[in-house]
């Protein structure tokens, strides 16, 4: 039922900021207990989780990217966004947004692997 769609420029110049938006339909980004992630896959490499924003607006980032990454949301538009600053050609990748869940068991929180993915969008960093 829920669908995710990435959008944004396909070409970014080095040192600039990469900005993408994920539009969610068929479900609310504020519905408990959903999580909303950005994941990327450089050419010839594996998936790399970048970060997540939860149903209640909490953000968490991959430590290797934290200094350059910001995830935000616009609940009125049912969208969440990714900004990756100071990009270089190594940031060239297919970027995915995805929905997962967090399971609350008392004080414990278990973040599940994303269940629903967007189709991905290729972003090339080049001058």
- Low-pLDDT stretches are none
Strand elements, count: 12
Largest sheet: 8 strands, mixed
Strand content: over 45%
* Secondary-structure-derived class: mainly beta
The proportion of residues forming helix, as a percent range, comes to under 10%
- List SSEs in N-to-C order: EEEEEEEEEEEE
Intertermini distance: 39 Å
Q: Would you give an account of this structure?
A:
By secondary structure, this protein is mainly β. 0% of the residues lie in helices and 54% in strands. The protein contains no helices and twelve strands. It has strands spanning 3-7, 11-12, 18-25, 34-41, 48-54, 59-61, 69-74, 79-84, 93-105, 108-111, 116-117, 121-125. The strands form two sheets. Strands 2, 4, 5, 6, 9, 10, 11 and 12 form an eight-stranded mixed β-sheet that branches. The chain has a four-stranded antiparallel β-sheet with strand order 1-3-8-7, with no helix packed on it. It is globular. The N and C termini lie far apart (39 Å). 26% of the residues are buried. The model has no long low-confidence stretch (mean pLDDT 97).
Topology:
Layout: E1 3-7, E2 11-12, E3 18-25, E4 34-41, E5 48-54, E6 59-61, E7 69-74, E8 79-84, E9 93-105, E10 108-111, E11 116-117, E12 121-125
């Amino acid at each position: 039922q829920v669908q995710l769609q990435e959008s944004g420029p396909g070409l970014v110049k080095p040192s600039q900021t990469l900005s993408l938006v994920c539009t969610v339909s068929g479900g609310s980004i504020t519905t408990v207990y959903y999580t909303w992630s950005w994941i990327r896959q450089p050419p010839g490499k594996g998936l790399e989780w970048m970060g997540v924003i939860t149903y209640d607006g909490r953000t968490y980032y991959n430590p290797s990217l934290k200094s350059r990454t910001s995830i935000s949301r616009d609940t009125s538009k049912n969208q969440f966004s990714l900004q990756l600053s100071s990009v270089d050609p190594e940031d060239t990748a297919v970027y995915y947004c995805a929905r997962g869940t967090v399971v609350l068991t008392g004080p414990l929180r278990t973040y599940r692997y994303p269940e629903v993915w967007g189709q991905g969008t290729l972003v090339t960093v080049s001058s």
